[in-house]
Structure formats: C-alpha cells, structure tokens
Amino acid sequence: MTTSKTPLLDRIETPQELRKLQPSQLRQLADELRRETIDAVSVTGGHLGAGLGVVELTVALHYVFDTPNDKIVWDVGHQTYPHKILTGRRDRIRTLRQGKGLAGFTKRAESDYDAFGAGHSSTSISAGLGMAVARDLSGGSNHVVAVIGDSAISAGMAYEAMNNAGALDSRLIVILNDNDMSIAPPTGAMSAYLARLVSGGAFRTLRETAKQLARHLPHFLYDKARKAEEFSRSFITGGTLFEELGFYYVGPIDGHNLEHLLPVLTNVRDKDDGPVLVHVVTQKGKGYGPAEAAADRYHGVNRFDVLTGAQDKPKANAPSYTSVFAKSLVAEAERDDKVVAITAAMPAGTGLDLFEKTFPERMFDVAIAEQHAVTFAAGLACEGYKPFCALYSTFLQRGYDQLVHDVAIQHLPVRFAIDRAGLVGADGPTHAGAFDLAYLGCLPGMVMMAPADEAELVHMVATSVAFDEGPIAFRFPRGEGVGVELPERGEVLEIGRGRIIREGSKVAILSLGTRLADALTAAKELTGRGISTTVADARFAKPVDRDLLLRLAANHEVLITIEEGSIGGFGSQAFQILSEHGALDGARGAFKFRAMALPDVYIDHDKPDIMLARAGLDARAIVAKALEALGDERGAARAMIA
What pLDDT score does 199 carry? Predict the structure, then answer.
C-alpha cells in the first residue's frame, strides 16, 4: 500500500475531497485523522475512546457514500469527532464542548453532515428508518446509514426499530459497531472473505434464483427451504437474530482494515432492496496506547498530555455529589439488607460501581434500558425490597411511562437517585437535567427532595431508605459539593419540612437544592443595601412546606423561589399553594411573588458558572430580581451588569 510524505488531511476540507483520493491513500489519511483527534481532545477533553475506534469506519463511510446527500445517522454521538474533522469543522475542532464552540455530539444546526442530532443512545435506527421511508415516499434514491454501538443496540428501542424496518422492507443500512460485547467470532481473512461473498451480487443472485426455484415447491417444502437457507448462512457468518428481524446480515468484519471495509460497504451500498446490517468489530481507543490500556478505553477524559496520557486532575475542594451518594447508600445497605441498587449502563457515572464492590449480589446494571430499570425496581419493591434506581435526570425521562404506570399509580416505594440534575456544562442540552422537577411534580403521591449541599444529600439517602409509603426521589447536580462536614450517619428528615437558614423581614428567598449558596450570597448583598433578607431551604419540592411558604409570604414584602429546573417545577408548586390560600389576592397590597427557574430555551454547552449566569440563576440575578420586585428598576439593571 503506497503512502505519501505529504499530509493528506490538510487537503480534506469536506468528503468531496476525500472521495478524490485513491483507496491506497486511505490508510495514511486514517492515521493522520487519528492523530488529529487525539491532539484535539488533549486540548479540550471530551469523549476520546469511541472516536478512535471508528476512525477507519468514518473514513470508509464518507469515501463510499455520497454524503451529505447520503445520510449517516450516528448513534449517541460520542464517536463523531473524526466525522466532524472530515466534514468542514477541523478548524474549530479545538473548540469542542467549549462556550460557543462545537457541540460534543452531532447537531443538525451545526452542519448538513449531521443528519440527526444525538446525545442519548439507541435512536439511530429509528431516525434512519424514518429518513429512508421519507425518501421512498418522495421517490428519492439516496442511501441512509445508521451507525449503532453494541451497547446502544441492547436497548429495546433499537429492536423496535429493527422489527419495524424488517416489516417495511425499506432500503436501510445499519452498521453495528461492536467494540466490547464479544458477541462475534474471531475476525480475520476468512470472515472478511465471507462478508464480501454474502454482500456481493453473485451470492445474492444465486440466492434469489434458489428462492424462485423453491417457490415452485409445495408450500411446506418452500418454507422449510427458505428457513434452511437463512439458518445455514447464519451458521457460517452469524446474525441469526438480525435475520429473524428481517435484516440481511453481513459480517463480522474487521472495522480497522480498510481493505475489508471498502468492498463490503460498496456491496451493501449497491444492494437495492430491503434492510441490511453490517457487523463491524472495532477496538475502543484504537491506536493510542494509554486509551487501549485504560479500563474504560478513555471513554470520557479531561485534558491530557499526549505523550504520557496523564489527564489533568481538577482541583477538588470537596467530594463530588455522586461519590457522597454512593458512599451513603453503601452505609445504608450495610445496615439494611433490603437495600438494592439499579442503574442502566452507568455504574461508574452514578457511583454504583462502589456499591457493586461491596454488595455485588445486590447491584443490578440492566444495560441501556431505563424503561426496564424502572419497572424492574417496581417488581423488587412489590416484594419488600428497597430499590434505589440511580439514573441521570436526562435518562430517567426515557422511563417516564413506567414511572407513572408501574410505580406512581401503584404507590410503590421505589427510590429514585437522580444524578446530573440541572445544567451540566460541556455536555449541553441533551444531558441537562432540566425537567425532572416538572415531570415528577405533577404525579400524585410523589415525594421530591433536593439537597442544598452534600451533607443534606446524606440525610436524603437515609430519608429515602426509611420512606415506604410510595415513590420518593432526590436530585443532585454534577460535580463537587461545597465542602461542608459530612455527618457520620444520615438523619431521617420529616417529609415536607424546610428550614430557615437566616432571618430577615423584607425579602424572602426560598431556595431548592444547590441554589442555596447563591441565595445566601445574594442575601448578603441585599442586606448591605439595607434590605433585610430571609433565606430558607425548601428541601422538598413536593410536598412543599406549606406552613413555611405561607409564613414567608405573610411576613415579607417580596417572596422569591429559585430552582435549577424548568418552568413548571418547584415555583409552580409554590404558586399553586399561595393561590389556594389567597396569598396572591392583593389584600396585603405590597406582597409580591417571583419564581426563578431555567428560562424556556435550551441552553448550549459552556462552563457551569457561565450557563447559570445566562440562565439568570446566579447571585447577581437574585439581587436584581429582588430589587425589581421592590420597584428599584435602576438598581436591578445595575446589579445585572455589576
């Protein structure tokens, strides 16, 4: 294979230039693309291992298919940094996940080459099928390729999509990127040869001829002949499950060998009927020693030194909320053998890997299957166990029907530990835990808590263990706490009771969760302006502490609620109570109520403090809101620009 000393990647602005290269040049291009990806992520941090695993596949797809006319739908998006480099964004690749920079996932508004936005897993086949059917309805001829990983394909949605695709028989190509599950036999020259053989026209023509002959047989013999052909081919190459779902299976093939990839992708591109699945085996972190050696293959990394692989360690002044939750749950499980833990393919992300080390038989990772996780927890609760279903807020959304139907309606005591609540920095709107307060708060009987600091989180874990009357949830943010001293053992809180942190007389700030720190900062500034300010910690978003709320309304000119959640959450709960009790009827004249929540927009990725300021939820915004309510418009404006 010939190579050039002249860099090829410098000549590639878009895939149009890529397709002008000779096949013999693609190995060099892939090597340069891998080095560029490593160097870029060393500067920005982000998801590295997945992208390194699909460098050759990315090159091959853009070489064989006429993108963006042909659609490539990437699942999740963790692996798309090489794709972004090849599709006109190399000059901005070092702005990944930075403010006003490239998104860490595919984003339709960012490029025509991003056919579908992603961030959550297992969506690519469904979206790709929709595009394929739209093409057919419009009389088009372009190709649609859905790329999905072996973990993502474990989710039920992927199988629903494949089942539908098989029934519709629309022309769709699915690439199964298998980098972890070991569901394939060893790959090599023989498997590559078989893949080329069964994907090629000669085999398909022979197969169709045999089918035509078989149709002249009696029905029972034809049916047996058809099944025999399918299973004999599957016996040689694998893929029986996919065949039964209606896909023509090809593979497995070595996803790092371009001489294997190119002819197979060309063959399936030229296949003119029905859905096909190409099983590609890759290595996560391929081509970078530190990533290959790491247990997680450098799935998500901080900035790092390219030569050594050593990552920058953030200066931690306090333990993360996730680790505090995990250690608290382990401590509770040591005292109560009914405590069990459930997560959906996120044991490390939710801290439950620590729980698993101590109680492996009581820890259940159900893979990317949030719907199942919730109902599985409901079944455990039916039998007297105390399940803690630990999910990111944004992923719990995927199990919402099960949460309503299988948990809440039956008043089952499932405990929901909701990580990554609120804004999440570099991962942006797809991962922001913005909506849980609203979508849980509307459910009768749901108890919702939010800790102001890590010590409060310890208490809320203990409270959840003790609560058996129905579902209970507590939400906490990404990142480290504020550095408070942790209690030796969690205290069981009285359900629906908040607490006063500091007393004042004119303005009251009722904070939910970790907005308390900024509320206290704002109160200090307001007091310095001669405005006596009360700060209270709601603790519970539902049931709201009615006595506390009404007392604050009765004794202050202004009452402000603040939460790091969407409109329709805690502030709406407070408003409903104030309305029911006539506190907003105007009889007191001067009383004013203001609810501060995330604005009704999706906030793009940035540093957390910048995102909070943009959302209008920092201390400066609280001061401005109080001054505005008091009629000091100029003071409010000055506060926002101070």
Answer: 64
Based on C-alpha coordinates, what's the Rg of the chain? 28
The Cα–Cα gap between 67 and 115 comes to: 10
Give the integer Cα–Cα distance in Å for 340 and 330.
10
Q: How far apart are CA 632 and CA 311, in angstroms?
A: 48
Q: Verify that 515 and 425 share a domain, yes or no.
A: no
- Do 596 and 513 share a domain, yes or no? yes
What was the pLDDT predicted at 195?
59
- Do the domain assignments include residue 109? yes
CB-CB neighbours of 413 under 10 Å: 23
Residue 519 sits in the same domain as residue 442 = no
With b for 16 or more beta-carbon neighbours within 10 A and e for fewer, the 529-552 pattern comes to eebbbbbbbbbbbbebbeebbbeb
Note the pLDDT tens digit of each residue in 286-298.
Answer: 988 888 887 766 6
| Inside any domain, residue 51 | yes
Looking at the fold, whether 594 and 445 belong to one and the same domain comes out as no
Residue 288 lies in a domain: yes
* Catalytic annotation, pick one of 71, 398, 542, 592: 398
CATH of the domain at 569: 3.40.50.920
Give, rounded to a whole angstrom, the gap between the first and last alpha carbons of the chain. 63
Assess whether 20 and 169 both reside in one domain: yes
Single out the residue in 475, 490, 523 at which a domain terminates: 475
Answer yes or no: are the C-beta atoms of 82 and 55 closer than 8 Å. Answer: yes
> Looking at residue 400, which CATH number applies to its domain?
3.40.50.970
Q: How many other β-carbons are positioned within 10 Å of the β-carbon of residue 185? A: 12
Q: Are 605 and 568 in contact (CB under 8 A)?
A: no
d(CA 135, CA 19): 24
> Do 173 and 82 belong to one domain?
yes
SS (H, E, C) 156-210: HHHHHHHHHHHHHCCCEEEEEEECCCCCCCCCCHHHHHHHHHHHCHHHHHHHHHH
Contact by Cβ (8 Å): 54, 62: no
Which one of 443, 475, 507 terminates a domain? 475
pLDDT at 588: 52
Indicate if 370 belongs to the active site. yes
Range of the domain at 518: 499-641
pLDDT < 50 stretches in the chain: 1-2, 181-187, 190, 220, 224, 231-232, 235-236
H or E element in which residue 473 lies: strand 472-475
**620 & 583 share domain:** yes
Tokens of 265: 């992708």
398 is catalytic: yes
Contacts of residue 85, defined as CB under 8 A and 6 or more positions apart, other chains included, come to: 9, 33, 36, 37, 40, 93
**How high is the pLDDT of residue 428?**
86
**Model pLDDT, residue 184:** 46
Residue 5 structure tokens? 């000393």
Q: Are residues 284 and 378 in the same domain?
A: no
SS3 572: helix
What pLDDT shows up at residue 589? Answer: 55
Q: Which of 370, 456, 564, 628 is catalytic?
A: 370
Could you say which of 284, 415, 539, 620 is catalytic? 284
CB 51 within 8 A of CB 81: yes
pLDDT for residue 186: 47
- The total domain count for the chain is 3
Does residue 234 form part of some domain? no
What global pTM score does this model have?
0.85
d(CA 615, CA 622): 11
Burial 334-350 (b: 16+ CB within 10 A, else e): eeeeebbbbbbbbbbbb
The pLDDT value recorded for residue 518 is 97
Q: What is the pLDDT of residue 183?
A: 43
